[in-house]
Amino acid sequence: MRVVAEVFADAVREAERLIAEAPHARTETDHREGLDYLAGLIRASIGSAWSHDPQFPYFIRSATPYTKVGLDNPDTLYFSARISGDAEYVVTGRRGTTADLSFQVLGGDYTPSGAPASQAAFDDRDLDVAADGRFTVRLGPGLSGRNTVALEPTASMLLVREVWSDWSAVPGSIRIQRADRVGAAPAPPRPQLAAKRWAAAARTLTGQVRTFLAFPQWYYLNLPVNTMTAPRLTPGGLATQYSSVGHYDLPPDRALIVTVPASDAPYQGFQLGGPWYVSLDFVNHQTSLNTSQARPDPDGLLRFVVGEQDPGVANWLETTGHRRGYLQIRWQRVSRALTAADGPTVEQVAFTEIPARLPYAEQARVTPGEWRARIAARQAAVGDRMLG
């Protein structure tokens, strides 16, 4: 057994080396946060390996405040289950009152050279959902019709996203079973199962580190700094998600004012990401805002201030000591194609210039007590969702 576990220990050492040598790891804080990031990936890789049974699958939480990867969205709960393209599965659930519930079938895994193929993507509007919110979806080879998904032979994962705009919404529920295994039990584990699990965890760990060190270069870092793109369909095959992305580099005496129309889409959210391409602390700091949380100006525009210093406005997004990081706005459940007119404009200003650059600066102000109440509400809402 010691030899088996050593495979994973080698992977941990390799992952630690990759993180220590990452090009963006320049400061003591970068390295400390890199080790926190690694700890989360270790937890996730072990959890994935021990739930990697497409014969008896179940959903696992793919991202939490302490297990982050791939610029996780603070407004989203991610659930994933391993599947096989040659079997039939039954997914049953109850739709909550959240803004969006979407499904995606992936083939393959994330690698440093690319993302897994998206083989199917849809949301609950494509399903027959009962008045009480209950639904059933069948996935398998050759299936057709309502509430079914035809699986390709290379299908490997079902990913479900429950997206919250109002953080006090009622969550739904969901489970998955392989159709021909309902009521059965798995065979006793074979002697080599432990070795296979540790080897899978090792591959997952080093693969994810390499992948998400490369991922920002594909979509973010080739863009001009302190700018954001026009809305575009999110890469990866999500059915109705547009995104605008960018990266920032701001000294403490500078800030970005990001202005975007408040959308009529059920979900619109803006978040910051740290150098390790994960969300910043969204529990104890306001590092993300959606349209249920942000304060719109009287002209229908949302004006966000991104920076280190507190400007005393409701829509401040805190960089929490991170001079460099990522910017992302998402729109989900859209009913039309978005254009540049729906997207953001970005202006870099001196911190002292912020009041003069906000046309409704007085309406945007919050007192220290109001700010503390905003943070308390975030902490309570995340606690209620049990995102541990």
Please give a structural write-up.
- The radius of gyration is 22 Å and the shape is globular.
- The protein contains 6 helices and 19 strands.
- It is α+β, with helices and mostly antiparallel strands and 388 residues long.
- Helix 1 (2-20) packs antiparallel against helix 2 and helix 2 (28-50) crosses helix 3 (193-219).
- Helices cover 24% and strands 29% of the residues.
- The strands form 4 sheets. Strands 10, 11, 12, 14, 15 and 18 form a 6-stranded antiparallel beta sheet that branches. Strands 1-2-8-4-5 form a 5-stranded antiparallel beta sheet, with no helix packed on it.
- A hairpin with a 7-residue loop joins strand 11 and strand 12.
Q: How would you summarize this macromolecular structure in one to three sentences?
A:
The chain has helices at 2-20, 28-50, 193-219, 354-357, 361-364, 368-385; strands at residues 60-61, 76-82, 89-94, 100-107, 117-123, 134-140, 148-150, 155-163, 173-178, 227-228, 232-233, 241-249, 254-261, 267-273, 288-290, 301-307, 316-318, 324-332, 345-350.
Summarize the amount of helix as a percent range: 10-25%
Q: In terms of structural class, how would the helical and strand content be classed?
A: alpha+beta
H/E topology pattern: HHEEEEEEEEEHEEEEEEEEEEHHH
Uncertain residue ranges: none
Instruction: Report how far the terminal alpha carbons are from each other.
Output: 30 Å
Q: Round the Cα radius of gyration to an integer and report it.
A: 22 Å
What fraction of the residues are assigned to beta strands by DSSP?
A: 25-35%
Largest sheet: 6 strands, antiparallel
Shape: globular
Number of strands: 19
Helix count, DSSP H or I runs of 4 or more residues: 6
